[in-house]
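Today's session is about reading a structure prediction critically. Students often jump straight to the picture, but the first step is always the sequence itself: look for stretches that repeat, for charged clusters, for runs of hydrophobic residues. Only then move on to the predicted structure, which in these notes is written as discrete structure tokens rather than atom positions. Here is the chain we will use throughout the hour.
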Amino acid sequence: MRRRMIVTTFLTFICVSNSFAASEAIHKLGRGITNVVTAPVEIPKEIRVHWIKGSEKTYHVLVWIFCGFVKGIVMTTARVGSGVVDIATFPFKNDALLQPNYVFEDWPKRQAGVSYKNLGDK
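Below is the predicted structure for this chain, in token form.
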């Protein structure tokens, strides 16, 4: 009886730890698939980031938009690579390669009361 109780307890601990590990693996696989699918959203995100920066600094917003487009392509490539690595290594435990974990986290926002400068304003 005692031996049966010890074996049951041991198996319960193994099953619980495996379910937590499986949950992390499923989360990692989902993160990888999400990053591969939503990676192109990095382009408009980076354009917006650079548009906001550029509108605060200078009237040459088109230069900032172009820089945001280039950085968006680079970040798209990085996010696809991170997603592929997450998909390929989802059974193994490791942290995300790219922060934020998803493209929609940390979306750039304009500060309240700050307006964009128009190209013709002085």
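Discussion point for the tutorial: DSSP finds three helices and no strands in the chain.
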